[in-house]
UniProtKB/TrEMBL annotation:
<dbReference type="InterPro" id="IPR036388">
    <property type="entry name" value="WH-like_DNA-bd_sf"/>
</dbReference>
<dbReference type="InterPro" id="IPR005149">
    <property type="entry name" value="Tscrpt_reg_PadR_N"/>
</dbReference>
<protein>
    <submittedName>
        <fullName>PadR family transcription regulator</fullName>
    </submittedName>
</protein>
<dbReference type="Pfam" id="PF03551">
    <property type="entry name" value="PadR"/>
</dbReference>
<dbReference type="InterPro" id="IPR036390">
    <property type="entry name" value="WH_DNA-bd_sf"/>
</dbReference>
<feature type="domain" description="Transcription regulator PadR N-terminal">
    <location>
        <begin position="12"/>
        <end position="79"/>
    </location>
</feature>
Amino acid sequence: MDQLTGFQRDLLYVIAGKDRPSGQQILDDINRYIDQPVTHGRLYPNLDTLVEKQLVEKGQLDRRTNYYALTPKGRRILQRRQEWVNQYVDV
């Protein structure tokens, strides 16, 4: 997790909170959170990096739409991250 950017970590959280979201769904959610609009040119390379790191699985919903889902490895590192954060932040 320490090898990821903050943006990539945010993407993991968004993906974890949805059932196989499309790139557009991820983009819509992340844009509701981040002050400056995120473009496709920023989103998809970062999603591809998460796929390459085997943290996210990419599949096809139809001929034009891909979905993204956490892999078991991605879920484990996100869970460890959340446990670490919970040690320091009691919200």
